[in-house]
Design goal:
The protein has a 7-stranded mixed sheet with strand order 12-27-28-29-25-26-13, covered by helices on one side. The chain has a 7-stranded mixed sheet with strand order 23-20-21-22-14-17-24, with no helix packed on it. Strands 4-5-6-7 form a 4-stranded antiparallel sheet. 37% of the residues are buried. The protein is built from 13 helices and 29 strands. By secondary structure, it is of the alpha/beta class. It is elongated and about 100 Å long. The protein has 3 domains: 24-260, HUPs (Rossmann fold), CATH 3.40.50; 272-342 and 472-561, Ribosomal Protein L25, Chain P (Beta Barrel); 346-462, Ribosomal Protein L25, Chain P (Beta Barrel). Bound molecules: adenosine-5'-triphosphate and magnesium ion. Adenosine-5'-triphosphate binds next to α2, β8 and α9. The site of adenosine-5'-triphosphate has 16 residues, from α2, β8 and α9.
């Protein structure tokens, strides 16, 4: 059967057109260029999947380039975390590179620019420079230092480099035009004085290159064929090309910047700067808090690399800004775990149930399928006894016909076990139910083949045997923000929309004994409840579970009620 060709996205289309126009396919090269100023988020994952995906598709190298030109914000911790996240997502870079490795080359090229009369040192403050910039409808004004001689510029620039000037006192600017339509072309700054220690070059440099100057030239040095970035850089493309023109040699490959829309996800924010604020203000428990949209947060929460790759693939890439529904991400993890996660029983909010006609000291072992979606998953043993826990919400003294769980005088099936009937309750002084007394139908054991086992009852509920149950802490997560687009409000800070109920910790949950041997990171379906994984806070005497995602979307229901 002929392989069906998937339709190309617009970036692939650009590459195909370049190949048709004669670009040597062995010259294709891509890069993923994070700034190590925070942890990667799900938006970066889209860029990673796009760039590394192109690498796989065209058998071309993809470099990891750290765009590390701002020592004030960059740290080794972030470099390490970024590498871990990309590898975890399942991708391998060809080379690990750093813009800071090109500081000398960039400096030499800046000298060249000065010598060509295309750059000058400006002694003005940033406020003065900004004032002269003009507006889109109004021309800018030339700096009084714009026509300095080459010699003077060279001498001043070297002084900047040697640390003879204070921060903010001098900058090197490209001499383009103060009347350009594109504001970014109005003599942009190429270098600034920054007396900060850099995580790789230490105190070697007193000046640091700006993003625009660095990025295109780094692409050129690395022979990147297609430099793919997000839409906000569209206006920068003209400058990218202008900078390239100054150093480009015709015999070389000329990198091309092309833009796609950033991934935005509903009910969260997606900028390292904002995520850093959440961490620093203690609104979350670190970058890998399971509520964070960071890759490390999603990993800890229990998301798989595949679910994130599948999400990025389905969400696709766009030419215009848009917001992707977080439900799509949840769909992909549910879809995967439905096929792969072993089923187990866990009772989050327990109430005691006594089966009064079950012998006091009897225990029996029941069998349950590990995963009905996977015939190779096998079965496991579950102990059953006279006293069990069920969910408090699964019982009501009285309820209407739509309540398919346990109620007085009615029957329900205990999953993988027997049919029981509720007869009476015991309450404490506050009227709260402390015990439910039931009787069971001895012949109704699941899978026994008896007539009674085939009897249809409306509801099935999960349970754990009290004597065998394992106590666990369960962390239930909800969306971190109550607003669909928390950072879209002009008059309000995004932090005002933090969901106060985004984390609920339940200490007295009980899980079936097969989970005693569960290891950190293992994922399960708690039947009827959702998918959970073992959090790294678990210890030998205490399991901690994270809810990855509920089976049904409670949020959608809540929204509906409003
Ligand atoms: P942030 O504001 O979150 O720090 P950034 O663009 O400054 O984002 P970088 O480290 O510079 O972060 O990004 C590395 C690469 O990932 C860039 O090519 C950038 O365009 C891309 N990227 C960043 N955020 C997104 C996003 N939300 N969707 C898609 N790609 C993104
Ligand atoms: Mg950035």
């Amino acid at each position: 059967m002929a392989e069906e060709k998937k339709s190309l996205n617009f970036i692939e289309q650009i590459i195909e057109d370049d190949l048709k126009a004669g670009l040597d396919p062995t010259k294709l090269r891509f890069r993923f260029p994070p700034e190590p100023n925070g942890y990667l988020h799900i938006g970066h994952a889209s860029s990673i999947c796009l760039n590394f995906g192109l690498g796989q598709e065209y058998k071309a190298p993809v470099n990891l380039r750290f765009d590390d030109t701002n020592p004030a914000k960059e740290e080794q911790e972030y470099v390490d975390a970024i590498k871990e996240d990309i590898q975890w997502l399942g991708f391998k870079w060809a080379e690990e590179l750093y813009s800071s490795d090109y500081f000398q080359q960039l400096f030499d090229w800046a000298i060249l620019l000065i010598e060509k009369g295309k750059a000058y040192v400006d002694d003005q403050t940033s406020a003065q420079i900004a004032e002269q910039k003009g507006t889109p409808t109004q021309d800018g004004v030339n700096s009084p230092f714009r026509d300095r001689s080459v010699e003077e510029n060279l001498a001043l620039f070297k002084k900047m480099k040697n640390g003879d000037f204070e921060e903010g006192s001098h900058v090197l600017r490209a001499k383009i035009s103060m009347t350009a339509k594109n504001m970014l072309m109005r003599d942009p700054i190429i270098y600034r004085v920054l007396k900060k220690s850099h995580h790789r070059t230490g105190n070697d440099w007193n000046i640091y290159p700006m993003y625009d100057w660095t990025h295109g030239e780094s692409d050129y040095i690395e022979k990147v064929s297609h430099s793919i970035c997000t839409l906000e850089f569209k206006h920068h493309r003209e400058l990218y090309d202008w900078f390239l023109d100054q150093v480009y040699d015709k015999k070389d490959l000329r990198p091309k910047q092309r833009e796609f829309a950033r991934r935005n996800l509903s009910y969260t924010v997606m900028s390292k700067r904002k995520l850093l604020q959440l961490v620093e203000d203690g609104l979350v428990n670190g970058w890998d808090d399971p509520r964070m949209p960071t890759i490390s947060g999603l990993r800890r929460r229990g998301y798989t690399p595949k679910s994130i790759r599948d999400f990025s693939e389905t969400a696709g890439i766009a030419k215009r800004d848009n917001v992707t529904d977080i439900a799509l991400l949840e769909f992909h993890i549910k879809n995967e775990l439905n096929k792969t996660a072993p089923r187990v029983m866990a009772v989050l909010n327990p109430v005691k149930l006594v089966i009064t006609n079950y012998p006091k000291n009897k225990e029996e072992i029941l069998f349950a399928e590990n995963n009905p979606e996977d015939e190779n998953a096998g079965t496991r043993e579950i102990p059953f006894s006279r006293e069990i826990y069920i969910e408090r919400e699964d019982f009501r003294e009285q309820a209407n016909k739509k309540f398919f769980r346990l109620k007085l005088d009615k029957e329900v099936r205990l999953k993988n076990a027997y049919i029981i009937k509720a007869n009476s309750v015991v309450k404490d002084d506050n009227g709260e139910i402390t015990e439910i007394h039931c009787t069971y139908d001895e012949d109704s054991k699941s899978g026994s083949g008896s007539e009674a086992s085939k009897r249809k009852v409306k509801g099935t509920i999960h349970w754990v045997s009290i004597k065998h149950a394992v106590n666990a802490e369960v962390r239930l997560y909800d969306r971190l923000f109550t607003d669909e687009a928390p950072d879209s409000h002009k008059d309000k800070d995004f932090k005002e929309f933090i969901n106060p109920d985004s984390l609920q910790i339940i200490n007295n949950s009980f899980v079936e004994p097969s989970l005693k041997t569960a290891e950190i990171g293992d994922r399960f379906q708690f039947q009827r409840l959702g998918y959970f994984n073992v959090d790294l806070d678990s210890t030998s005497d205490g399991l901690v579970f994270n809810r990855i995602v509920p089976l049904r979307d409670s949020w959608a229901k809540m929204e509906h009620k409003k």
